[in-house]
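During the second half of the funding period, the structural biology subgroup turned its attention to how the target accommodates small molecules. The most pressing case was NAP, which had performed well in the primary screen but for which no bound structure existed. We therefore specified the complex as follows and requested a full 3D prediction, including the ligand pose.
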Amino acid sequence: METRRIGIIGSGDVAKALGRGFARHGWDVKVGTRSPDKLRAWTDETAGTDDAVDVGSFAEAATHGDVVVLAVRGDVAKEALDLAGVTNFAGKLVLDATNPLDFTGGEPRLLFGGTDSLGERVQAMLPDASVVKCFNTVSHHQMVDPEFEAETPPMFVCGDDADAKARAEEILTELGWPGAEDAGGIESARYLEALVPLWVRVGENRDTWSHAFGVVQ
Ligand SMILES: NC(=O)c1ccc[n+]([C@@H]2O[C@H](COP(=O)([O-])OP(=O)(O)OC[C@H]3O[C@@H](n4cnc5c(N)ncnc54)[C@H](OP(=O)(O)O)[C@@H]3O)[C@@H](O)[C@H]2O)c1
């Protein structure tokens, strides 16, 4: 039976948006960080309400979730997974929201890409988990119950496990998305991650941060 426990590895804007959002949708959420104290004011805001979010270490969050979201800086994903304990992900769906971005020197660039991706590296680091790249191409403001002026596009996902992608799509639908746009195996993370520097440049030109890419026919 599917349970509704989710662990979120990370404490930044993405982890907070997803943590609150999943809680609002009735999930039992544990957010993981190396410094739980820094989230105290944030958790106090909803303590005792249905939207309450628990906080623990990376390992506690990974252990807690039947589904785990990875939401840390792309350049430290390996360090975060090592701290979380790779065995704590075994048999689980992992939604990988990370991007391998280099912010030195102005607009973000990919740290690596073309023939490699962070999605593939995360899957290789977690061989007993099913990694689905998800959430990485939209702003944290739009990750849960998105609101666009135009029709909401399905969320781009990719991953090697068809069942895991189907479960990811169910979760996305519950969170207010019209479904998932399947971009293929985890190798397609090369292209989903490459959308992000483009997303930033388009946002700067349009002076908006609430946009998303979609497929039209
Ligand atoms: N911001 C967005 O709208 C957005 C949208 C789509 C995708 N993303 C991607 O989602 C990921 C999270 O983004 P974010 O903006 O929420 O947060 P972020 O600032 O990119 O990452 C914060 C997280 O990184 C962890 N971290 C930093 N240094 C670390 C280290 N040396 N070892 C282990 N962990 C370390 C922090 O751990 P502690 O908790 O211990 O401090 C924290 O949980 C990124 O990969 C980003 O590219 C972001």
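Two results from this model are relevant to the next phase. Residues 5-206 form a domain with the Rossmann fold fold (CATH 3.40.50.720). The chain has one domain: 5-206.
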